[in-house]
Amino acid sequence: MAAFEPMTDVEMENEPGISLNIHIYQDTNLRGLPVAFSVKWKGETYIMQIVKDGSHMRVAFRPRDVPEFIPGEKSDMLFFKTPFSKGDRQFYRFESSLEQGYFLAFERNERKSVTQLVIKRMDGIDESTKLHTSPLPRKKM
């Protein structure tokens, strides 16, 4: 399960060894900028992938090096980064390359008190798919 907890900038600065990275790939596909995600934790790299269980899809992280090249236009680890709305340069959506219309989103799991990263079908505007990319705050010296 990909789960996230709210953290302050100070907590993020002091958290050793955890980072979510976006890797950009070259492509001529007009759906958006092709990207893949990885997490570095305790010195090991985990690639984010979409796992299909019949008609259900879910997000999973698997130990694997980040590939330099991803062949084809469909991959369980490839997403298309597009602006959340026309002309927006701050917020983005990430659509699965496996299934058109499925986007990364955050859903709150109140029972476990965490926010989960999920893949969900979206036909219109859905704020849960609105993601902001930014670098980690720099440590003060």
What does this structure look like?
This protein is mostly beta strands and 141 residues long. 4% of the residues lie in helices and 45% in strands. The protein is built from one helix and ten strands; from the N terminus they run E-H-E-E-E-E-E-E-E-E-E. Strands 2, 3, 4, 5, 6, 7 and 10 form a seven-stranded antiparallel β-sheet that branches. A hairpin with a 7-residue loop joins strand 6 and strand 7 (91-96). The termini are far apart.
Write the layout of secondary structure elements.
Layout: E1 3-4, H1 9-14, E2 19-24, E3 33-41, E4 44-53, E5 56-63, E6 79-83, E7 91-96, E8 102-109, E9 114-121, E10 131-132
Antiparallel strand pairs: 1-9, 2-3, 3-4, 3-6, 4-5, 6-7, 7-10, 8-9
Features:
mainly beta; seven-stranded antiparallel β-sheet; single chain; 141 residues; 4% helix; three-stranded antiparallel β-sheet
**Order of secondary-structure elements:** EHEEEEEEEEE
Q: Approximately how much helix is present in the residues?
A: under 10%
Structural class comes to mainly beta
Counted by DSSP, the helix tally is 1
Cα radius of gyration in angstroms: 15 Å
Give the structure's gist in a few sentences.
The chain is mostly beta strands. It has one helix and ten strands. The protein is 4% helix and 45% strand.
